[in-house]
Amino acid sequence: MNHYDPTGLDPQRTITDLKELRALTGDENGAQRVAFTDTWIAARKFMREKLESLPIEVEVDEAGNQWATLVGKSDDALLIGGHIDSVPNGGWLDGCLNLLAGVEVLRHIASQGTPPVTIRLVDWADEEGARFGRSLFGSSSASQHMNPDELRDLKDKDGIRLQDALERVGINIDRALTTKEQLRNAKAYLELHIEQGPVLESMNLAMGTVLGTYGVERHSIRFVGQAAHAGSTPMHLRRDALAAAAKLELEIREIAKRNGGVCTMGRVDTKPGIVTSVVETCDCLLDQRHLDADSLAKMLQEAKDASEKFAQEENVSVAWTRIWQIEPILFNEELRALTDESIKEATGTGHRLPSGPLHDAAEVARAGVPTVMLFVQSLRGLSHTKLEDTKEEHLAMSVQALDRLAYKAVEWIQKS
Predict the structure, then answer these.
(1) What is the pTM of this model?
(2) Domain ranges (residues) in the chain
(3) Which residues contact 136 (CB under 8 A, 6 or more apart)?
(4) Which of 140, 263, 322, 414 is deepest in the core (most CB within 10 A)?
(5) What architecture is domain 215-326?
């Protein structure tokens, strides 16, 4: 791989492959490639068929991640990753764009002979977590941030345990952590993804370099007051748990605005839950995200302080329980600079933005592998819906940018 030569790269072939996958694994409601289902298995078979004509070795590791390896002159490896699984009724590009763009990059590199370093394309198992509620299964196994005992008894909507679903497709959850060996020679990791948000479209930009993924604080909050008859209890004597929760819901929006983060109170459950009773117990789920750890901590503290204030105002109690937390993950600055160059070469302009959603790239970065992501514009900012879409010319640009970045990353690995 001397001077970059785009000859032989065919971005339109990636678009055709994506449409074939959509026809194979989607229906009138959208993509149905939910992890560990028969449709997911069919999608993976489709991927392997696309690689059959190449000098590629394909294997599935102990965590169910599927690896396609183009052996190079060195064991040092450039990883390109994505995920074939989708949410139910999902979009045609989420996750699989990078894999099929990655296949085209492998085709291009293989056509130029043996590469100076090994190139590996990985399909991470169950990135979405749509079936069992635990995202990033395969990549967090590789990064050693997966605890089998916390996950094995998770159940899907049909009551099937995660451990049993894994065993059905040949995965032993107690051996999943051994997949860390797959990262032994990894020197860089690239991941292309649709933005899943409206920023690039609002700026009339095709692509952007991802700064990193937001840190997340996810908590359950319980307000407890007193049930009382809705007709006979004067307003000033009520201990309404929902009233305090409602005040907090409005305040967390202001907290996020002040600190430059985002937040959602995505679920509120009340008891007794009848129209004739003041709410005694209100359980809320709060999700707060920020790219800066100190700002995220400040947002959390401000929300806790506000909840205490509103509890006192409404004469109720409040208690917090952390459900899950992950620190902000900043991507490698040298790779971000190379990504900026690649995007400008492919599209004429560039931009940097954070990722609100989590991605497998965050776990790879946590494992110590230099990592970067590229975003391509999402029409209307929609994802996780059959309405998810990206202009075909932008999809073609994203394949070109990923290919150029792969070339630059190989050179970077050689110099490192």
Answers:
(1) 0.89
(2) 11-213+328-415, 215-326
(3) 124, 126, 127, 129, 358, 360, 362, 363
(4) 140
(5) 2-Layer Sandwich (3.30)
